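Lab meeting, action items carried over

1. Structure of the two-component assembly. Owner: GW. Status: complete.
Input record:
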Amino acid sequence: MARKVTTQRKVIMTAIAWALGILIFFPILWTFLTSFKSEADAIASPPQFLFFNWTTENYAEVQSRSNYLSHFMNSVIISFGSTLIGLIIAIPAAWAMAFAPTKRTKDVLMWMLSTKMMPPVGALIPIYLLFRNSGLLDTRIGLVIVLTLINLPIIVWMLYTYFKEIPGEILEAARMDGASLMKEIVYVLTPMAVPGIASTLLLNIILAWNEAFWTLNLTASKAAPLTAFIASYSSPEGLFYAKLSAASTMAIAPILILGWFSQKQLVRGLTFGAVK
Amino acid sequence: MIAPSVLLLFAWMIVPLAMTIYFSLLNYNLLSPGMESFVGFLNYEYFLSDPAFIAALINTLVLVAGVLVITVVGGIAFALLLDQPMYGQGIVRILVIAPFFVMPTVAALVWKNMFMNPVNGLFAHLAKAFGLQPIDWLANAPLFSVILIVAWQWLPFATLILLTALQSLDEEQKEAAEMDGAGAISKFIYIILPHMARAITVVILIQTIFLLSVFAEILVTTNGGPGTDSTNLTYLVYAQALLQFDIGGASAGGIVAVVLANIVAIFLVRLVGKNLEA
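Predicted assembly:
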């Protein structure tokens, strides 16, 4: 570990890495900056980076024109709702597979993973028609159902990898001390499982928030979450860069912050525990 | 306790699939309800012989391959760079990972309007600053533009996973190689790359699953066009079902997409299956 690193090398590496990092991040930064410009400044030539008249009018405009907050709430309800229901269904399954594995546990896990490989267009048409006929089209409930199902395999897998790391001996010790099953779950298992459940929750909220196949195809206006609302800017009228930027900034900011907190869990969750 | 999850997923997988297969054998258009009739494999014949299908198939494969090459090569480079000693490593990491959290519709529209627009986009300004003629990216190189946008979204994912793998490499192993006189390149080929092999296969597997179904980026940028130049299979099926209301034909397309995804999946799972044991 004690390799000497010359300061010169470190400075050069720092410069390269920062330059590339800023380059990758630039579209987000540019969107953020543009959201505070007037529409005229947003398309000014040459482009203005910092020295323009900062204004927050775009944010007010986006809200007053299209009731932005209701779409925001749709996103919140759909992503939190589908994640919570998914957790309720997945926790017992992951639990059983981690603590009472059978010969087929691994096959079941692999099978669950394989359901993720079915392309959504294979299910689009029947789901669309079923939803249309049962009045679920453009409802939050409908989207919560679909997103719960598509993320369920990831939730089960992620919980499973966390639960598996809880040593079984601790449970045995508690049992020997005469703890009932209820006490065992409440006092011994739950505290140890909370971090894993929390990370799973976080990652799935991120995935559900950004899901853009089903949300685009199954909503029109009422239940449209932010993914679908932003898509309405693809057929623009007049000058709209600043407003698009303001709407985009509000749509990605909460998830960007959650995401930065969950970097480590992200790797584990998205690789089904294969890379930690 | 496993039953609810298994049953739900089983239903989710089987019911729509069975219905899609059933619809694919019907002449069924939403514009003429009540006129459904059984036509056997006619829809498949039409779909598979449609020039748009061949175009979409090629576009799908080019899109997946293009994004994979950019993100895996770029990801390895970024991971190696971020593993070097530097100032403010944590902040650079945050900057690089950020695009992954941007929702697809936002990413696509920001790139389309604020970067690739031939009049007001930053690329156009940049071209003019160098005295060049700005190009209309989405009209002249639609598939390439979509690849660029999608690669920007997935580069962070590859980087983060490869960096995590790289950081678990034993420092002493690298030192030992150095003492044996290994140069930077042979160290990379014989020690670093084999160590990352598993993470690279995982990145390829997971990205392929998502990339086969790219949809939002195409919908809000090019609408699959011009012509079918940026239409992939997912988009083609969507267009046939929800724009032309041809349920039978679109269902046949959906089944073709499922078969294709399964071929790719079998191939990939063989490759990485044993790595996924938790």
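2. GW to write a short summary for the group page. Key points so far: DSSP finds 13 helices and two strands in chain B. Residues 51-82 of chain B form the longest helix (32 residues).
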